Amino acid sequence: MDTEAHLTAGYCAATGTYSSRHPPLTTAAAASFPDYLFPRLLTFPPDSPAFVDASTGATLSFPDLRTLSLKAAAALSALGLRRGHVALLLAPSSLHFPVVSLGVLSLGAVLSTANPLLTPRELADQARDSEPFLALTTAELAPKLGSLLAASRVVLVDQLLAGLAGHDAWAAGASGIGRDDPALLFYSSGTTGRSKGVVSTHGNVIAAAALLQHVWRRRGGGDAEDVYGCVLPMFHMFGFSAFVLGTPAIGATAVLVPGRFSVDRLMAAMEEHRVTRLLAVPPMVVQMAKKLAAGEPSPTSSARRLCLRDVVSSGAPLQRDHMARFASCFPRVSLVQCYGLTETTGIVTMCDLSPLPHGNGNGDGVESSNEPPPASISIGRLVPSTEARIVDAESGESLPPNRVGELWIRGPTVMQGYLRRGEATAAALVTDGGGRRWLRTGDLCSVDSRGLVHVVDRIKELIKYKAYQVAPAELEDVLAAHPDIHDAAVAPDQVS
């Protein structure tokens, strides 16, 4: 490949490194994420909602988000929560979730979320590892905690917030937090193996929010003008980074559609609240297309009533046929992908959200009526201040564009490490000869000549058949192309 093509891909042959083509990230000199966010909340229109609950119509303004978060910090401090303590948050998405989260972070305490669907045993495993000082939960979920904590350390979120009137706001910046202090302890299976506690610092969180501000900008458009549909769980890093870190920092409204996912409720909420951008996972995208395809008399009549312009999908690769079905039902909506891990505090690649000349497709122009489709659908380009390597699993060699290997990531959002898992941390975070630290993602990827990243599959999910290594995602793509198959998953037959 010639030098010009290498430059277009952001690839340096001398170092084997791909660099973001975006300008470097710049962030304000804030010591903690609350110090970064709270001044911003005072610059947005006071009557503009930061959050809307689509099920009740309740709203939370930007100034109220700041005030209630600082009052929550004061209330939690009165309960003994201090800098360095872990606070376990076991709750579904709600208007309360960001308030409590920001209250914990304001004290310099570490926020550890838990999936409400965890069994008591799974929750006990997580709690034994994280050793929370207290748990914040709901009356419905509290029984799952059993005897993990003393009753005095189990705090019902509703009761905590109901008593905020009796507390003065915590003094912003009074906790002496630094950027290297831990902020989040989210649990993930990691690049391999059982669930581990991922430690993200305040510096990681600030960078994650600043990155979202950059990549969510639309050419020719602003930030706050977009209304975001929130169906992602806030206890998961994708939802947390988007709606606790991201939308408040840019002054955009997030419309929550709480509870178990329902495509009917989502479509109704998007129409009523004029949602322009939806963040989703592939099964949601599939259900949206299926819903409209079954509509009468015209599948596009409902789509035309929507203000929706973008759907950003992550969590798993979209299959090509799913994108085609979505495009036929939502011809005016751009469906793109992003990619990130819990270990990267959110996204590290993102497709361009520019309006598309051909309607639906990949926002970086991968799809075109004049070009054959690529082998896989792009997950976008590297976000600002982020570098990547594509590494051959056997030789350890850094690979040039259009070669497949393990994706390694380096940037300001990469985790501090796994809690009390020295060996796992050493396996996931490797240092090169120049002293630079890289995260091994465990994903097989390639970078094309335009700098677009493509996911092939997870390394550990490759199926070995005779002399071949078969990527399940490729077989799933073939199966999903059948009109009677809505989704597909491929796993090896361990018996035969």
Automatic annotation (TrEMBL):
InterPro entries assigned: AMP-bd_C_sf (IPR045851), AMP-binding_CS (IPR020845), AMP-dep_synth/lig_dom (IPR000873), ANL_N_sf (IPR042099)
EC number(s) reported in the record: 6.2.1.12
UniProt GO MF annotations: 4-coumarate-CoA ligase activity; ATP binding; trans-cinnamate-CoA ligase activity
UniProt keyword list: ATP-binding, Ligase, Nucleotide-binding
Any GO CC annotation of this UniProt entry: peroxisome
GO biological process, one term: phenylpropanoid metabolic process
The protein's name: 4-coumarate--CoA ligase
Originating organism: Panicum hallii var. hallii
Organism lineage string: Eukaryota, Viridiplantae, Streptophyta, Embryophyta, Tracheophyta
